[in-house]
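Table S2 (text version). Query chain:
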Amino acid sequence: MNLAEKIKQKYSSMVLEATAIAGGDPTIVAKKETIKNLMTALRDDVDFQFNVLMDLFGVDYLFWEEKEKRFEVVYNIYSISKKHRLFVKVPVKETDAALDSVTDVWPAANWFEREVWDMFGIRFNGHPNLKRILMYEEFKGHPLRKDYPYNKRQPLIGPMH
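Corresponding structure-token output:
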């Protein structure tokens, strides 16, 4: 049994599916409403010990056939002691583009979550400082959404004196 299957078996109430592509990293799909509890469990569980959040990013599936799941947030976590990696995917609907912040679990999530908010418009409930990180505050919209007009004019802001 591979790592993803072990996690799905142990945390079946929080994990929807587990995959392991030959030559690829193990991946699980987690329930949106349980992400913070699952991440805490994966960090603290002696069998897994995922103690590093390597990355967190958003994906927009606007033009894919499955319209139910517009977005996905992907967590790349790693265990230093066990030397294994896991990708945790969380489907996010466009009509409810929010999930719980994991900054309490991994402080490194702070800036990653801010970037996903800024670029995709996915909110992170409980984030300590959810504001733009790459675009300026007056910027309208979220530029990595596939329906964002590439030639949209933005408000011009001048130098602050």
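Notes on Table S2: The CA atoms of residues 113 and 124 lie 7 Å apart. Helices lie at 3-10, 35-44, 109-120.
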